[in-house]
Amino acid sequence: MTLDQLALLIGRTHRTARGLRDRWCNAGWTQSAKLAVNLPPFVWLTSRGSRVAQSPFRTWDANHGLASHIEAVTNVRLLLERELRLGSWECERLIAQDFHSRSEIRPHLPDAVLDGPQKVAIEVELTLKSRARLDAIIRDLGETYEHVWYFAAPRLVPTLKEIALLARWQNVRVHRYPAQAIEVAASAQIV
Question: How far is 104 from 158, CA to CA, in rounded Å?
């Protein structure tokens, strides 16, 4: 997560989050770096921190190419799980553990599943994929989950809405990213 997201998560100032991050880094539990020019520094667990936190996941290697996507997924998580309290978050890494083999053919995995009164697949889309690829993803998710919520960069919203309208199950909602809490809350009432 980014340093700004850590501040939101702990409900403190940016300065307090920075101090906490520095203590964790000095203890060897986390690493921190600026991974993209337009984003704040990220903080992630080291193998030592993973053992202390008893994380079930292998440690993450900093990935500059995924930084914007990870920041966006975490922002959506903070909105849905923390601010709106719509359910508990199951990350893609947890969902992937249900598949025992990398060679096993599996449907597209969402970025997360929001587990509340109903299961909602969450997909964050910041970059354009081919129409055929988007159609296949929407089909896979629509057939697997009760509801699918896309959070997409504004330029992608029209294409995704068009594909969602043609989807067989009609269970896909497209939200603009960054999402507005009031819009998402209204959509959640409909679900």
Answer: 33
